[in-house]
Amino acid sequence: MEHEHTQHVAAPPDRVFDVLADVDNLPHYFPQVTAARRTGGDKVTIEARYDGETKHGEAWFHTDESARRIEWGSPGSDYRGWLEVSPDADGSRLTLFLTTAHGDASDSEVMGTLDAIRRLVEAAT
Protein backbone atom coordinates (compact mmCIF):
# COMPACT_ATOMS: atom_id res chain seq x y z
CA MET A 1 0.00 0.00 0.00
CA GLU A 2 1.27 3.47 -0.84
CA HIS A 3 0.61 6.74 0.98
CA GLU A 4 1.59 10.25 -0.03
CA HIS A 5 0.68 13.37 1.93
CA THR A 6 1.93 16.92 2.29
CA GLN A 7 1.95 19.33 5.21
CA HIS A 8 2.84 23.01 5.56
CA VAL A 9 5.43 23.74 8.26
CA ALA A 10 5.97 27.28 9.55
CA ALA A 11 9.77 27.03 9.49
CA PRO A 12 12.49 27.53 6.85
CA PRO A 13 13.21 24.47 4.66
CA ASP A 14 16.81 24.09 5.85
CA ARG A 15 15.67 24.04 9.49
CA VAL A 16 12.98 21.43 8.75
CA PHE A 17 15.48 19.26 6.89
CA ASP A 18 18.08 19.52 9.67
CA VAL A 19 15.59 18.32 12.29
CA LEU A 20 14.40 15.43 10.10
CA ALA A 21 17.90 14.36 9.03
CA ASP A 22 18.93 13.80 12.67
CA VAL A 23 18.31 10.08 13.33
CA ASP A 24 18.02 10.82 17.07
CA ASN A 25 14.77 12.70 16.34
CA LEU A 26 12.96 9.69 14.79
CA PRO A 27 11.24 8.71 18.08
CA HIS A 28 9.82 12.23 18.32
CA TYR A 29 7.74 11.92 15.16
CA PHE A 30 7.35 8.20 14.36
CA PRO A 31 5.11 7.01 17.19
CA GLN A 32 6.18 3.36 17.01
CA VAL A 33 9.92 4.13 17.14
CA THR A 34 11.27 4.19 20.70
CA ALA A 35 15.00 4.48 19.85
CA ALA A 36 17.17 5.02 16.77
CA ARG A 37 20.95 5.11 16.41
CA ARG A 38 23.17 5.58 13.38
CA THR A 39 25.65 2.67 13.27
CA GLY A 40 27.79 3.83 10.35
CA GLY A 41 27.12 5.30 6.93
CA ASP A 42 23.44 4.96 6.08
CA LYS A 43 22.84 2.09 8.54
CA VAL A 44 20.73 2.57 11.67
CA THR A 45 19.42 0.34 14.42
CA ILE A 46 15.81 0.82 15.37
CA GLU A 47 13.80 -0.14 18.41
CA ALA A 48 10.04 0.02 17.96
CA ARG A 49 6.82 -1.11 19.62
CA TYR A 50 4.24 -2.93 17.51
CA ASP A 51 1.25 -4.79 18.87
CA GLY A 52 2.55 -4.40 22.43
CA GLU A 53 5.95 -5.93 21.65
CA THR A 54 9.33 -4.24 21.47
CA LYS A 55 11.20 -5.17 18.32
CA HIS A 56 14.77 -4.45 17.25
CA GLY A 57 15.91 -4.14 13.67
CA GLU A 58 18.33 -2.78 11.15
CA ALA A 59 17.38 -0.15 8.59
CA TRP A 60 18.95 2.29 6.19
CA PHE A 61 18.49 6.06 6.39
CA HIS A 62 19.93 8.13 3.54
CA THR A 63 19.96 11.93 3.58
CA ASP A 64 20.52 14.18 0.57
CA GLU A 65 21.04 17.70 1.88
CA SER A 66 21.17 19.36 -1.57
CA ALA A 67 17.74 17.93 -2.48
CA ARG A 68 16.44 18.20 1.13
CA ARG A 69 15.34 14.58 0.79
CA ILE A 70 15.53 11.64 3.19
CA GLU A 71 14.95 8.03 2.13
CA TRP A 72 14.68 5.01 4.41
CA GLY A 73 13.81 1.37 4.39
CA SER A 74 14.33 -1.97 5.99
CA PRO A 75 16.50 -4.64 4.34
CA GLY A 76 14.53 -7.67 3.23
CA SER A 77 11.22 -5.81 3.56
CA ASP A 78 8.87 -3.90 1.28
CA TYR A 79 8.70 -1.11 3.88
CA ARG A 80 10.32 2.08 2.58
CA GLY A 81 9.64 5.77 2.26
CA TRP A 82 10.93 9.25 1.68
CA LEU A 83 10.47 12.77 2.98
CA GLU A 84 11.13 15.86 0.91
CA VAL A 85 11.23 19.47 2.10
CA SER A 86 10.63 22.36 -0.29
CA PRO A 87 10.05 26.12 0.12
CA ASP A 88 6.38 27.09 0.54
CA ALA A 89 5.34 30.72 0.98
CA ASP A 90 6.36 31.68 4.54
CA GLY A 91 7.73 28.25 5.47
CA SER A 92 8.12 24.78 4.03
CA ARG A 93 6.14 22.08 2.34
CA LEU A 94 6.87 18.61 3.65
CA THR A 95 5.94 15.63 1.47
CA LEU A 96 5.90 12.13 2.98
CA PHE A 97 5.69 9.01 0.81
CA LEU A 98 5.41 5.58 2.42
CA THR A 99 5.15 2.07 0.97
CA THR A 100 4.08 -0.81 3.18
CA ALA A 101 3.64 -4.44 2.18
CA HIS A 102 0.50 -5.23 4.11
CA GLY A 103 -1.29 -1.91 4.41
CA ASP A 104 -0.28 -1.74 8.06
CA ALA A 105 -0.18 2.06 8.09
CA SER A 106 -3.41 3.96 7.67
CA ASP A 107 -3.70 7.39 6.06
CA SER A 108 -4.59 8.82 9.47
CA GLU A 109 -1.34 7.42 10.94
CA VAL A 110 0.66 8.96 8.09
CA MET A 111 -1.07 12.31 8.60
CA GLY A 112 -0.41 11.98 12.34
CA THR A 113 3.30 11.54 11.62
CA LEU A 114 3.32 14.69 9.46
CA ASP A 115 1.54 16.63 12.18
CA ALA A 116 4.05 15.40 14.78
CA ILE A 117 6.89 16.57 12.52
CA ARG A 118 5.24 19.98 12.11
CA ARG A 119 4.83 20.38 15.90
CA LEU A 120 8.41 19.24 16.59
CA VAL A 121 9.98 21.61 14.07
CA GLU A 122 7.78 24.61 14.86
CA ALA A 123 8.46 24.20 18.60
CA ALA A 124 12.21 24.11 17.92
CA THR A 125 12.29 27.34 15.89
Key attributes of the depicted protein:
single chain; 125 residues; alpha+beta; 25% helix
Explain the overall architecture.
The protein is α+β, with helices and mostly antiparallel strands. It has a single domain (2-31, 61-124), classed as START domain (Alpha-D-Glucose-1,6-Bisphosphate, Chain A, domain 4). Helix content is 25%, strand content 47%. The protein contains three helices and seven strands, in the order βααββββββα. It has helices at residues 13-21, 26-29, 107-124; strands spanning 2-9, 33-40, 43-50, 53-64, 69-73, 80-88, 91-99. It has a seven-stranded antiparallel sheet with strand order 1-7-6-5-4-3-2. The longest helix has 18 residues, at 107-124. It is globular, with a radius of gyration of 14 Å. The termini are far apart. The model has no long low-confidence stretch (mean pLDDT 88).
Spell out the helices and strands N to C. Answer: EHHEEEEEEH
* Poorly predicted residue ranges: none
CATH class: Alpha Beta
- The number of helical segments is 3
Mean pLDDT: 88
List the helices and strands and how they pair.
Layout: E1 2-9, H1 13-21, H2 26-29, E2 33-40, E3 43-50, E4 53-64, E5 69-73, E6 80-88, E7 91-99, H3 107-124
Antiparallel strand pairs: 1-7, 2-3, 3-4, 4-5, 5-6, 6-7
Entry summary:
This protein is of the alpha+beta class and 125 residues long.
